[in-house]
Model the fold of this input.
Amino acid sequence: MAYNVLIVEDEPHARQYIGAFLQQQGYEVTEASTYAEALQALQRGQGDIVLLDIQLPDAYGLTLLDETADWPNRPPVIVITGYGSIETAVEAMRGGAYDFLQKPVKFKRLLQSLKRLEEIVAMRRELALWRQQQAADFVAGNSPAMQAVLAQAQRAAEVSATVLITGETGTGKEVLARFIHKNGPRAEKPFVPINCAAVPETMLESELFGYEAGAFTGAAKRKPGLMEIADGGVLFLDEIASLPLDMQAKLLRALEERVIRRMGGTKWIPVDVQVLAASNRDLQEMIAAGKFREDLYYRLKVLELRLPPLRERREDIPALVGFFVRQLAPRMGKQVRDVTPRVLQALEAYRWPGNIRELRNAIERALLFCDGDTLDLQHLPPEIVRWSDSRVVG
Done:
């Protein structure tokens, strides 16, 4: 895969000259003549590596290093300038630049620097791919209910639609959200989850929208919010029903206007995110009780995907069991490769109040107590065995 180099240079001749050379070397090139254009390009995800001129018409070039300092995967930066000095080089390196080149740029030296940075970009791509594969590695099952959900999820992924995922606790709502992310055009962009119920109400706004230095006691430096970090990618709002009403209003505005403002800030920041929200509570009941905004509900419910509980898709249990055994056994140092028929009978008979999460925990517990290569009834949690026995007796 080719590497994209973002050339930030206000002199057209120099910018085009360097760009033409890099294209001859097999690089893709994106050009920016101003600081504003450069920042917009980076926010769109353009530029695996940045060549940054210091003297720009609308800002001091090194400001870009400060502006992007908190980005989790800021592209590596090579600073180029015709006003070179030891002080400037030190300032650039302290700001996070990987190299410093003086004009006129010597192409041999530039290529050497780019080759080193390619290794960093390649490593990041591999890690991102690995994390994505791990997160989305799941078995959906062949039940009609799940196949219908996946078909709709695939369509939502393709068009980056806003989706409300509903279902009981443990049915796999985040797993489905990650499936949508992986199978859409935003797959190479961030997947940013937040559990709204796990964040104190006083911190929700700063978590979602970020804050400027000095916005409140303890805010020593600027921090981007999760919506900003997810720009270009997917924001997953788990347990959306836990959002207090005032935050619901602020979230609705951000979704409708596609802009955010950090706490303590005055600048509106454009964001492009696909929002996936999840709830295990009945939002319509909450609307009737005045605890959830109806306008936010319909803004989130462009498409609603209901994940069926495991008791409604028992035919998927054998495939899920096989998947969990293959996934967990190597991690636990076990050689388990099979399960007995009576294990499957017991698992299919159980009521599964905790759904797929409970099934996974049951398989993990069974593997812990299994010293051979086959899971049997005595390895299962006692409550599952007792339930199976009571059904047989009944």
